[in-house]
Amino acid sequence: MIILDQVCLSYGEKTVMDHLSAQLPAEGILALKGPSGCGKTTLLRMLAGLVKPQSGAIRGCDPRKTAILFQEDRLLPWRTVEQQIQDVLPPGRRGEASSWLERVELSGEEKRWPGELSGGMGRRLALARALALGGELLLLDEPFAGVDPERAARILERIRALEVPTLLVSHEETALRLADRVIPVEGPPLRFL
User: Fold this and answer.
1) Which of 64, 86, 91, 157 lies 20 to 30 A from 100 at CA?
2) Side-chain half-sphere CA neighbours of 118 within 13 A
3) Whole-prediction pTM value?
4) Hey, how many other C-beta atoms are within 10 angstroms of the C-beta on 173?
């Protein structure tokens, strides 16, 4: 269980979280659904340890054992598709890169450069990198942007098979429909409905 206890965060005059308290299950695939700008991405970044709350506490989540997929792909243009995955794997596991690419349906693209990929392919590559990095919690921000619904459904089932608790933010109906639980949110400040 991930516990948010009276978490507060502001950026200047903008209050993003105001004494936010909630309990989120740390199992299966949990999706947050809400309007843009309500604080969902900030929550993921906080769980990943990239943003610290100004007050309150977060328990049940070790940022050192999370993998995050950002809204932006953040691919390295000088590294091939295969190298993007190898870069996050320990030396003894670099041979696994092709299996991670297969999970997101990028087999055969190993030697291509990020600039040669379509937007959806780049998104899937960024997702494969986050999955390969692994950990005890996956934090996925819009993992299927630009990915067709049928492919997104297949990939989400492969993520489920990893049996790693997953918290995702999505506006894609496929991801929301296939999640184990969907929590509607609104804000700012971020509120669970």
Assistant:
1) 64
2) 7
3) 0.95
4) 12
pLDDT digits (tens, 9 = 90+) for 133-158: 989 999 999 999 999 999 999 999 99
Token pair in block for residue 166: 């997953």
Percentage helix, strand, coil for the chain under 3-state DSSP, each rounded to 5: 35, 25, 40
Long-range pairs, 149-158, Cβ under 8 A, ≥24: 149/173, 149/174, 151/105, 151/120, 153/178, 154/105, 155/103, 155/104, 155/105, 155/124, 155/127, 156/29, 158/103, 158/104
Could you tell me which of 2, 15, 1, 32 has the C-alpha nearest to residue 171?
32
Please state, in angstroms and rounded to a whole number, the distance separating the CA atoms of residues 174 and 183: 15
